[in-house]
Structures are given as structure tokens and as C-alpha cells.
Amino acid sequence: MKINKNAVVTVDYVLRGDDGLVIDSSANHDGPLSYIHGIGALVPGLEAALEGMEKGGTISTRLEPADGYGEWKQELLAEVPRERFEGVTDLAVGMQFQMGTPNGHFTVTVTEISDSMVKVDGNHPLAGVALNFEVDVLDIREATAEELEHGHVHGPGGHES
Ligand code: ZN
Fold first, then answer.
1. Which helix (H) or strand (E) holds 50?
2. pTM of the full predicted structure?
3. Which is nearest to 141 in space by CA: 150, 153, 132, 130?
4. Ligand 1 center from residue 48 Cα (angstroms)
5. Distance CA 6, CA 4 (A)
6. Phi/psi of residue 96, each to 5°?
7. Phi, psi of 39, deg, nearest 5
8. pLDDT per residue over 127-152, tens digit each?
9. Distance, CA 141 to ligand 1 centroid (Å)?
């Protein structure tokens, strides 16, 4: 079968920046990644590149930020009064929090801490970064009804239940 919506696809991948350095790869995790195609599990440009491929296929593709994790946005930087982090022990640069805003929920990363203010950045760490993917398609199968209901893959490369 070919990769289409709701197929469970298993891939090995390497992601590099334009400088050639490895940002992420399946080898850095538990091995091959299994995901349900067409439900937004991968960045949009990569799903589009994989659409229609067959088992054993390989792609090498460069995605602009808009097709990856989005453009970097100045308006996602914020300063938050320190007292909003009162309950947090060991507040440190690099920590991540969920923050509710009028525009929805964002995962923000702490970038700077002073006595009264905490600076946070709601951009994805890879926002504004061009993504160079090399992907090997290892396997393709139909998703089960349960997997579609849960929105994730069960078994090797996926969730336990
Ligand atoms: Zn499940």
C-alpha cells in the first residue's frame, strides 16, 4: 500500500539544520518512529512529502520554516511577573510551562529571570528553522479503529495502550 490518510507509517529519519548538524533523529530515540499519517502528527511539509510513498522508499527534503514549525514570532515573547511562578521550586532558564493566553495555550520556555520578572518565549524551539529531513519508509499498514480513536499508534514505535 501507499502512504495515505490514516495509514500507520514507520520511518527512520534524520533531521539536520542548514549547517548540516543533526537536530534530531530516530536513532536518538527508541529507534524507528511510527505515526498515523494525515492527522497532524508530523510537520505539514513532511507529511506532504511522504504522501503516496511506498515501503522501502527514501526521501531527502528541505522544508522552509512555514512548512515546518512555523515562523519565529516576536509577539510570542512575553514578560511575566515573577510571582506567577511562586509555586515553582528551582525556577531556571530553559524550563518549560503551559501558559494560557487570550490566543490559546502555548508551551513557553523561560529565557531570562530577574528579581521581579521572568521572560518567556512561546516559539517552538525549531520555529524559523529550515528543516532538512532524510526519511526511510520502513513499513506501512492500516490503522486500527482503536488507534484512530486514540490518535496514536499502538505497539512497536508507538504507545502501549
Ligand atoms: Zn491508545
1. helix 44-50
2. 0.81
3. 153
4. 25
5. 6
6. -115, 145
7. -115, 15
8. 999 999 999 999 999 999 999 999 99
9. 17
